[in-house]
Amino acid sequence: MALPHHPTAPYAAQNDIYTTLIPAPPRIVVPPPPLDNLALPSLELPTPLNSQTHPPPQITSNTVLDWSYERRREAQAILPNLYLGPMTVAKNEAWLQAAGITMVLGIRQKAPGLAGKLMDSAMARIRALGIEAETLDLLNNTELIKRFPECTSKINGHLIAQQGQGKVFLFCESGNERAAGVAAAYLMEGWEGVDYIRAMQVVQAQRFCVNFDDGMKRLLQGYWDVVCARRAVAGNGMTGGSGSGFGGVGHKQKRRLERDEDDDHEMGQDDLERFGGRSFAPFASD
């Protein structure tokens, strides 16, 4: 196969195919959930960390096989006490009452406009029904990673106040993007061993139209690292009961450097061991 032509210096000849594109991290692939002996997705959850706020260790139903396009306009139960859907469902007073929703949490863009006014009017009608209504305003998706603990705190605080009888409806404009990310983060925080891949699998199995794009996947991957670090710190007895971050540290421990100065001097030898046997070069002298 002929190599593509790239302009090179007069004294160099191209050896192999190469690219001038900026390096990009590998894509995060969310595999389909495993199937049980009835060909239904098997997505049982482990024991929850807090039995006061979280349901029994299984999800209510699996809807992948019977999903239809029209269901994107409806809300689905991600957990027995947590629903996910679009903003149009938040305006459906009959559904809110029939489903027994006791709290609505809306995720929206922090910008003046028609969408914000529509959500404000929907929230006013919800409060008139005696349902608690909260909103989370974001400048962009990347702001979510520092607001995930706030969402979890709002949901858990409400469920504890309702003594296990509450139900929360989580929504954004489409019900497929930011609110889906919040639902996945909630699973990661509430069940030990449910990582970002497993959390996205559960959410997508219940609401098949959710859209975890590359940005949201990396956001959840980064937040999973935060969740793991927080649990490790709490396990070492360093936290003072804070559930939304690394605050409440009772005592500080000095960090020990993994390398001393002698190790730093040996890095040159490490590089030789790592790269010394490689013979590939994109160019060769004429």
Q: How does this structure look, described?
A:
By secondary structure, this protein is of the alpha/beta class. The chain has a domain of 167 residues: Protein tyrosine phosphatase superfamily (Protein-Tyrosine Phosphatase, Chain A, Alpha-Beta Complex). The chain is built from 9 helices and 7 strands; from the N terminus they run E-E-E-H-H-E-H-E-H-E-H-H-H-H-H-E. The strands form 2 sheets. A 5-stranded mixed sheet has the order 2-3-6-4-5, with helices on both faces. A two-stranded antiparallel sheet has the order 1-7. Helix 5 runs parallel beside helix 7. About 8% of the residues have low confidence. One of its GO terms (molecular function) is catalytic activity, acting on a protein.
How would you summarize what this structure contains?
InterPro entries: Dual-sp_phosphatase_cat-dom, Prot-tyrosine_phosphatase-like, STYX-Interacting_Phosphatase, TYR_PHOSPHATASE_DUAL_dom. The chain is built from 9 helices and 7 strands. By secondary structure, it is of the alpha/beta class.
Write the layout of secondary structure elements.
Blueprint lengths: L11 E3 L61 E4 L2 E5 H4 L2 H7 L3 E7 L4 H15 L3 E7 L5 H18 L6 E5 L5 H13 L5 H11 L7 H22 L25 H5 L1 H9 L7 E3 L1
Parallel strand pairs: 3-6, 4-5, 4-6
Antiparallel strand pairs: 1-7, 2-3
Helix pairs in contact: 4-5, 5-6, 5-7
What portion of the residues fall into strands of 2 or more residues?
5-15%
**Mind telling me which CATH architecture of the domain at 69-235 this is?**
Alpha-Beta Complex
Low-confidence sequence ranges? 239-262
The overall pLDDT, averaged over residues, is: 77
Q: Specify the number of helices.
A: 9
Radius of gyration: 25 Å
Highest CATH level, the class of the domain at 69-235:
Alpha Beta
Q: What is the straight-line distance between the termini?
A: 21 Å
Structural class: alpha/beta
